[in-house]
Protein 1
Amino acid sequence: MAYYVMLTTLTDEGRKTVKENPDRINEVNYEAEALGAKIIAQYVVLGQYDFINILDAPDNKVVAKVAMELGSRGTLKTITMAAMPTEDFINILKK
């Protein structure tokens, strides 16, 4: 499995949805898992983004599908980046 960081910004419609139904946040996590990605951690953040999600997924295709499915609803926008544990990176550099 591979790790990904997904930065999420709510649209006006998304903010309205979350305000009216805060549990919707967790429902989206279950939907991502149904598409093959596991949500490892999720944080609400202040600033340019509203949420940071750490995902574990088999490959880029699964994460692209998650981002497209969630984004196609018009309630959020995402930026997704591949990530790796620092220990793995250090080991790569030592070889």
Protein 2
Amino acid sequence: MFQVPSLSDLNVAAALPAVVLALGACVFLVVDLFVPRERKHITAWLTAGGLSVSLVLALLSLTDVVTFGDGEEAFFGMYIADQFTDMVNVIVLVTSLLGVMVAYNYLDRTNMQRGEYYYLLLFTTAGVMFMGAAGDLVVVFVALELLSIPLYILTGFRRPQEQSEESAMKYFLLGAFSSAFLVYGLALVYGATGTSNLREIWQAVDSMVAGDTSAQFLLLTGAGLSLVGLGFKVAAVPFHMWTPDVYQGAPTSVVAYMSVAAKVGGFAALLRVLVAGMPNFMLDNGTSAAWMDVTWLLAAATMIVGNFIAIVQSDLKRLLAYSSIAHAGYILIGVAAAGVPRVADEATQAVLIYLMAYAFTNVGAFSVIIAVERDDASNTGLSSMRGLARTQPLLAAAMAVFMLSLTGIPLTAGFVGKWFVFKAAIAADLIPVAVIGVLTSVLSAYYYLRIVWMMYFEDGDGEAATPRPLAWAIGISAIGTLVFGFLPYLLSDMAREITLAFGG
């Protein structure tokens, strides 16, 4: 007879930050039905409160002040509650809080103030958190859909504007196509190993490699297809074609959040599947994982394509779209370096450090675009930056900080992220891709610093409006970018104990 497991059997407390947020999203969905349209700011404050509670729980767990639950697994091994999970939770929750601040006034002035915006954002955030904690391939796929479906809706949130609806349709169709690749890849991994549990996959791969069985081909194909499916989410080349159109057509507040949250979820899942589940998948007595070479080639192509095409862009949102593609390449360097067992922990820590730095920088940059954007979604061209330093000196200074950080200039968080990623690549003997990363970073200075030049050295009106919540988001992002740049040990200390190795 089937016995219903108790809460203690499931160890729900270990997954408390994610569970609290997911339940909160469901509650707010119902509460919002009773909130009048003209008072939707109540839903925004409830959302911020739910995110804050979950963030406090995640920080307490990350700093080991409080240990939730019994052990590091919940739901019979399907949820892993380790420091990697805590770090992913902190990054995406900070991003979400900034996303709520950014959207608060933006939705009002663009006549999009509808309560569903906020709980869709919560469901996406919960999806990212479950992807980072996935201990099973089934959780990876379900969490990916929980992340993706709300984003498809949010992308078309500016209906009936044609450009927003078109971008949502493109994102949905290509996203569904990539999900098919992922689920097929995960099915092949299951077929090769006989299990969907990552710990058991790790154990099965050991015996598979030792026995030199034909299942190795199935596993290699499955890993490749999984890389394709998750490569779409992180906007890696050649799975990046949706990015510029979606970024340009979607509401800018959605793009500010999505540009970070989707990457955090995608890279967290990549690390769980490849680095935790298949780090020991080596062919022909090799010393590195079989998926490493393909990953660093994708990283090189992504950095080159993203940076070169960004140079010719004349719209800020499209420029930052290609910038986002390029940064996916830099982060992929860390994923590739994790294919060398002796560097795996260092590379994993580097990826998370980069994602935290990128969260503050990219949300801040899009927040400045919101400040200069008009209510009809116009005025997002590069020309909108001309003369901004004369009319809005603080806003221009913040934008300059974000551009310097995206370039990777020292004393900014962006430099710290690239430093750790390139350091991991060199430790893994991936010298060619590290060189490509440095050269493309130098190339990116052209289009990032061109914006700084326009703000400070060209004549223009420099129109901008920064209501208080948006100003808070920009200020917090700028402070985070500078603090982590001046005090990099704050990031390295948070990630120092993170490991994905089972039993390590």
Protein 3
Amino acid sequence: MEKEIWVRADRPADREDRKEMLLSALESGICTAIIRPEDGDFKDLGRIDALVNDGGLLSGGYRIVELRTPEDQEAALDLAGKCPGVILDSSDWTVIPLENMIAKFHGTGTKVLACASDKDQAKLYMTTLEKGVDGIVVDVDDPNAIRSFTSDLASGEKVELTPIEVTDVRNIEMGDRVCIDTVSLMVPGEGMLIGSQGSCLVLVQSESEDNGYVASRPFRVNAGAVHAYAMGPGGRTRYLSEFKAGDTVAIVDRDGTVRYTSIGRCKVEKRPMIMIEATDGRKSYSTILQNAETVKVVTEDGAVSATKLSPGDRVLARLEEGGRHFGMKIDETISEL
């Protein structure tokens, strides 16, 4: 699940310092900030969801909960299912109360966010009980610390990639291919997870390498046929045909590190296609890509043009059991052929 990142812009005593905190949040890509009632005009500084803190109750129904004693914890636990979310604030607490919170609030519809004053603290909160909190509220004294803080958190999510062996590559009929242009630059080894089955998504590299004929376009992933799945936030999948400008997609590198970006443009064009079949030794999988030199899949050692793949080559893919229902993983017996 993609974690929310907020910032507390209500802490500093000086108004200009609070303003600088919010501006730094905007420049770091954070779209939600907590502000004081008298700072309502800060909303005009940019497109940001500014939540006013009125004695611990935020506009929108969220509540800031201070954890100082066991009684504080009991009062916080009692909020499960009774408000949109709680923000846990404490300078002296262990992970145990947080574990209790995550377990209690799971499935109630009430989100749990935690204030964090450093990156190590934030990463701990985001992985407690494996699920972690729903989000982090950056709570620092120095506005300049926000950018590095958020860049580290954004690259903290990982997926497991497994080498699978190519068994066949063959030309098929012309098809409608989706080309996704993002608002971010990618590097070799980064791309999107694409596949004909939700149980196997192959890492298709961005067009971040020159090939001697066409200049690199590191913002682009020549993603595949319209029917294919692609991974988005929270591990959910969507059909490539559904993506549009402004949607969020997952960018993954060969180590499995995930970051998120927005789509700037999608192009659907008729192109010659190839079908790649592969196996993990137990099951067979497939994906369909454009028959073009510039379309590359990622391997353990680099990237290989899809047109030059041969049986025996190994490509990186995300494998999982079960099926998909409206893009969400479900545990069921399913065969996708």
